[in-house]
């Protein structure tokens, strides 16, 4: 009977070794899971912060684009009005030149000029 007892003791020792190895693997895996969960939490926090930052930048960008569009509209209106002023000034100048030219040819001005 000592032989079966020794065999049983050998099996028992081997089982205990495998159980201890499995416990160590489980412990190591638990550490890896905890690290991964911490990393995941950290990344989720960073994503949330970046999303908030992105939202702020997007709102700011939208405001700047709207302002630029308003300025473009005002600038276009001002340029159009300025072109009308230039056109009116050119027309006025041409009219004045013609009228002054016509006045120089009238007999009353010729006698007063000489």
From TrEMBL:
Alphabetic keyword roster: Coiled coil
One CC-aspect GO term: ciliary basal body
Domain of life: Eukaryota
GO biological process terms, semicolon-separated: axon extension
Family matches, as InterPro entries: SSNA1_fam (IPR033362)
Sections of the chain in a coiled coil: 12-67
Gene3D superfamilies named in the record: 1.20.5.340
Protein name as catalogued: Sjogren syndrome nuclear autoantigen 1
Upper taxonomic lineage: Eukaryota, Metazoa, Chordata, Craniata, Vertebrata
């Amino acid at each position: 009977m000592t032989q079966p007892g020794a065999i049983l003791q050998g099996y028992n020792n081997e089982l205990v070794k495998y159980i201890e190895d499995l416990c160590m693997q489980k412990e190591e895996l638990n550490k890896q899971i905890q690290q991964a969960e911490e990393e995941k939490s950290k990344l989720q926090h960073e994503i949330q912060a970046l999303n908030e930052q992105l939202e702020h930048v997007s709102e700011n960008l939208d405001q700047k684009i709207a302002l630029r569009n308003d300025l473009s509209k005002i600038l276009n209106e001002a340029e159009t009005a300025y072109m009308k002023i230039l056109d009116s000034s050119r027309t006025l100048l041409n009219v004045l030149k013609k009228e002054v030219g016509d006045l120089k040819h009238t007999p009353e001005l010729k006698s007063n000029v000489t």
